[in-house]
């Protein structure tokens, strides 16, 4: 009986309000962690999208340059033919 009395007295010392305060603090911490992870995911996605756009832009620029060089070659070859 002595052990049980000690347990009950210890349980009575712990107030329910202190337990809820701890739970509320933990819930707030978890929310902050989730928000932080969400922001990191958004930033990572934005960076990935930006890189993808830059790659596409470089590719289109490369294609344009190739077309320009082909057109220049055609013009040069046609002018050489006219001279001959």
From TrEMBL:
Domain of life of the native organism: Eukaryota
Segments of skewed composition (Basic and acidic residues): 27-49
Bias kind Basic residues: ranges: 50-64
Region named Disordered: 27-84
Identification of the protein by name: Uncharacterized protein
Origin species: Reticulomyxa filosa
Taxonomy of the source species: Eukaryota, Sar, Rhizaria, Retaria, Foraminifera
């Amino acid at each position: 009986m002595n052990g049980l009395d000690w347990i009950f007295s210890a349980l009575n010392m712990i107030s329910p309000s202190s337990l809820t305060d701890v739970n509320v603090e933990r819930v707030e911490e978890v929310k902050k962690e989730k928000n932080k992870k969400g922001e990191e995911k958004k930033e990572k996605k934005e960076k990935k999208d930006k890189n993808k756009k830059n790659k596409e832009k470089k590719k289109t620029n490369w294609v344009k340059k190739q077309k320009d060089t082909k057109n220049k070659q055609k013009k040069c070859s046609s002018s050489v033919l006219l001279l001959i």
